[in-house]
């Protein structure tokens, strides 16, 4: 047994509630799978267990991890001769009523689920919730801290309302948080806290994080955001065949950079399998995950959906294209490499100059992270990448949309969700980042108001601005065509003033004023200017109505003014 198994299993099977913290790759899954089966085997000796009696529930934050845990249970249940335990996997992406029907037909003794889908079945199926309330012996939360960070706190509290009070509850994670302490108080009775430390002095200090012993952590400090992508492409080429996990902050970034990497990595007819995986792929996720596990030479672009508990054999490098959202996220990301027994691994963090503070925090937390030095940046590759990005965006409206979505999603995540957001926001050169995304025009974002004036100039042209304007007109017309009558009625009901996309099109004088001033003004001043224009137009309309009543103008002139 590993240390966490030796410490947890004896306590678990003697009716103790546990809160277990152990480094990634320490064997936490077996530390709860084995006791669950042992407890249920003891139960069948004393009771008549029916096919619908749910004895154990394990909750996981992601579908991939849930599938992996379920697979471990199946390896045991398929070979047990004393009793035919049935395990059932409940994850999103399918109709919950199909899961209810499957449960009613085949039954289940062990449930492995994501939080949302479990709550669905508890709420929608009386039979399911009744058997849980009457029969549940063990409730386990795997990667419990991530369940809270992903916003499942309310769902978990709702689930706890359905569970019997007399049960064993255990939490397993590689990191502990303050929020987790709150959940421990709510869901566990006099829990035993188990912390398995690595054998080094630094990690035993308070507040220090733990990393696998065979993991080498490196970082690269780059002068410009434009250098990150060409460096990574050369890095992947130079290190040759292997498995690479590349973490990015958002789904839109993964979609955008996957197209660029596939273009430049396969430029020399290299047979590189490049995959992408994020939460929005839904039903495709499991197939992509299995494909990545099976192929020896493969690159996977992903978000943090792949950072927790996922066991992928022989990941050679974990590359952090963007900073992780927290130190805990960094630990979990890195742990996808070098966490198996006697397996070494590597991680590489790409940093901009103002992000060096993150490296300092890592070191203060006990992470041994060393710089990569004497790097020659490929200037020719950098120029060719930016040139291709821009030309492709000019040619393809979908590529243009992807570039803007990737940039906007990154900036919003960077400025709001990151634990270093205040530091990053003050010193971030957003123009440099926009240039690295090959944007044709810088989008307007409220986040820019909080940022300093950028020394780098935006690499856009007037022709690019015209292209963007044409694209916006096309997208607007497309949106208008696809609107349903219900959406049109709702929009017209919510709108205070009916100002068309083209401004004051029936009033040439107003239109001219609108076009001259609206581009110069922003925020409150622009709103005040538009309000004044609308009032002026209403006054003109009132004067025309009075003239018609007094007979100073004809009906035809009146109709021409109002475009009737």
From TrEMBL:
- Give the domain of life: Eukaryota
ATP-binding listed as a keyword: yes
The protein's matches in Gene3D superfamilies, at most eight in alphabetical order, are given as: P-loop containing nucleotide triphosphate hydrolases (3.40.50.300)
**Pfam families, per this entry?**
CTE_SPB4, DEAD, Helicase_C
Q: What is its EC number?
A: 3.6.4.13
Q: Where is the Helicase C-terminal domain?
A: 228-389
Gene Ontology MF, one:
RNA binding
Which SUPFAM superfamilies does the record associate with it?
P-loop containing nucleoside triphosphate hydrolases (SSF52540)
Name the keywords, alphabetized: ATP-binding, Helicase, Hydrolase, Nucleotide-binding, RNA-binding
Task: Please report the stretch or stretches of sequence annotated as the Helicase ATP-binding domain.
Answer: 9-194
Report the enzyme's class at the first EC level: hydrolase
Recorded hits in InterPro entries, A to Z, give:
DEAD/DEAH_box_helicase_dom (IPR011545), Helicase_ATP-bd (IPR014001), Helicase_C-like (IPR001650), P-loop_NTPase (IPR027417), SPB4-like_CTE (IPR025313)
Q: Which reaction does it catalyse?
A: ATP + H2O = ADP + phosphate + H(+)
The record's function comment reads: RNA helicase.
* PANTHER family according to UniProt: RNA HELICASE (PTHR24031)
Which family does the record assign?
A: Belongs to the DEAD box helicase family.
Instruction: Read off the domain note.
Output: The Q motif is unique to and characteristic of the DEAD box family of RNA helicases and controls ATP binding and hydrolysis.
Protein's recorded name: ATP-dependent RNA helicase
Q: What is the organism of origin for this protein?
A: Blomia tropicalis
Q: What is the lineage of its organism?
A: Eukaryota, Metazoa, Ecdysozoa, Arthropoda, Chelicerata
